[in-house]
Prior knowledge:
11 strands, 383 residues, alpha/beta
Amino acid sequence: MHSRVLRVLVQGLIRRYAAASTVVTRAVGFVATDAATGISQSMEQFCLGWLEDPASAVDGVENCLVAALIYLVFHFRGLIPKNDIQRILATSGTPGSPSEAQAQRPASFSRGIVPIPCHSHNDEERPVPLYDALGVGCTSVEADFWLQGGDLLVGHSKDSLKPSRTLRSLYIDPLSPILGHQNPALNLTGSHANESAPLSGVYTSSPSTSLTLLVDLKTSSADTLPVLTQQLSPFRSQGLVTHFDGYGVTGGPITVVGTGHTDFRALVSNTTYRDIFFDALLDQLWGEDTPGNATAYTADNSYYASTSFAAAIGGTWLGGLAPRQMYKIRGQIKGAHERGLKVRYWVTPGWPRGLRNHVWDVLWKEGADVLNVDDLVGARDFL
């Protein structure tokens, strides 16, 4: 009887610890390795083996505690941050962070992180904006902002706005030192020192990968675009932004894309230089109802072609997509790719996870270029 009770208690404690450790490891940007999982399973078998014999139950509990202590030592050693992104995530909320962590960036800033084609939807609402997305390797982040008092306040709704949460403080200021340390030769006081040498992006493992900053203008384009253009000047002066020079597009570590109230005509009015690209309407690039001005969207002025999955494709029935829905997905993706644009569907199913992953799988296999996600860890595991 006592042996059975102890057996249940040991199993419960081990499972509770395993669940808790997963939360902790995800909080710092990575999940326990298969090796750690194997140790956990071996520990359970070891402990329960001692408890099979009631006569050795007490010794078994003592040995279980020793085994658990040894396991904890080795396991939590694996939680020591391996790069600067994980250090920032681990220390977020403590005095002096994250600005203190941003002051010095070693070359290992993003060591071990492999970029994945995911878009961090409503990134400003995450516990640590920008860094949560970088921690899993997202190549695109979204910042919603409103023009208030001459500055760009970041937030999905007006109720969430705070003077301390600006486009500068959450995105531009953090990215500047990151890119400075990724590019030691960069002249931080002026322009790019060697314009013939390509600049590296935020990911050490893939320096040519550009980070897309999707800016969702919540206030009028006429008033907001000039302020946004001015605030991007540190990137522009150092050659860090993807831009059009009147002849073609030159890639950079940061690609800025305007959506929301962004006015397409205002963006393309400058025919000799522009570094804010448009988020074209994906559902207007293919089909019988394609408007005549759809031909205006090209890779010289636009980057993404996006639409609401729920509105453009419709709901899913019995966990699958109908043939007409697949036909529309393939047509829309074809229409965007013919114009050199990258496909992004938003408002895709988020629950249940099986349905979400099925839709992700369909979109990925059909050629969507980036997955619009709320669950960053789920996207990393899927991709």
